[in-house]
Amino acid sequence: MTATAAPRIAFPVERVRADFPSLAVAMRGKPLAYLDSAATSLKPRCVLDTVAEYYGPKYGTVRRGVYGLSEKATAAFEGAREKVARFLGAPGPGNIVFTKGTTEAINLVASSWGRTRVQAGDRILVTAMEHHANIVPWQLLCREKGAHLDVLPMNAAGELEMERLPGLLDRRTRLVAVAGISNALGTVNPVREIARQAHEAGALVLVDAAQMVAHARVDVADLGCDFLAFSGHKLFGPCGVGVLYGKAEILESMPPYQGGGDMIQTVTFEKTTFAEVPRRFEAGTPAIVEVIGLGTAIDYVRRLGIDAIGAHDAELLEYGTRLLEEIPGLSFTGTARRKAGILAFVLSGVHPHDIGSVLDQEGIAIRAGHHCAQPVMQFFGVAATARASLSIYNTRDDLDRLAAGLRKVVALFR
Ligand code: PLP
Fold first, then answer.
1. What is the CATH number of the domain that holds 70?
2. Which of 108, 127, 191, 211 to mutate to test the pocket of ligand 1 (most atoms within 8 A of CB)?
3. Confidence check: pLDDT of 65 > 90
4. Three-state SS for 114?
């Protein structure tokens, strides 16, 4: 297996580590080796400071207040929308809808766009390696509408069988929903090519970028997608905030998803008219402070440079792969030629939860389970896998400790 090719750029990992207070805390009396960033990333001090500031002296509601605190909070909130738009290469802030996370963003598209555009006999195409968040909303929609859910298969390496794509795209395919990077396997998917073929067939494309944003450059124009979703908490930002990017003409054609305050123009008992996009999709008081915190997280990532982050990730992935290959009885799930950030594996004769528990005693945090991707587990014929996921604050030392911990597991369970 080879990691995604990326230029070698010296990465200031020790300086980055100093930005993350969580890394100063011991786990089980040992320094923390945090290898679960695919689940949620740690937070740098600048994000914690923003959150404290905007829940503290700068706290105010947005959009409604006519007083200074509220005006300033509104400016910071809308400023974060502009930062997200620039980060994604979107035309402008009008393309950015704030949601609770990736899951809510995908549900928004399925409910609003899907309910009005998908009819009986239509088809939605997902891939064999999607997170449940990019399967279940489409299943619900298909069930409601009498539409069909198709699946683009993958091979034993965890790579999409692209030669099967043309046969799965037909004139009834309304949307292709694909993860940029698989959370269970680490596969980097050929999103641009999928989007090209989908558009030729007249389908729209939604990219689940939950794992992509913290590992690779995401440019919606370059990817050619119609929708893109991600979560703030996987991008060093707060929990409870996420983003839906949508092409303007598509968002504008979509009806509201939820009703309430902030998403209206006028309300009478007879009739309600709705606000412009993106407010039409942001009913109720938003996660004000979390959105502003996400803006700070994006500033932080941009300062580090996404290409430098990608190179650091590739270097660690290659190193970790070599180390883990030497562990007796270990086999990887996911050996794609283009991978990022994830080492998922099983150890013969040892349940992944036992691996996780032994490593926990060593101060090493990994994830063990189905990773909300049960079809991937079914494909590989396992109930669960162990997953070490990499981020900007990980070092070769973390991976050396992981390998040493796994040797302990092997010794204990053999
Ligand atoms: N999609 C992928 C690829 C993910 O990895 C995750 C979370 O692990 C999600 C979607 C769901 O994200 P959230 O739970 O933040 O909505």
1. 3.40.640.10
2. 211
3. no
4. helix
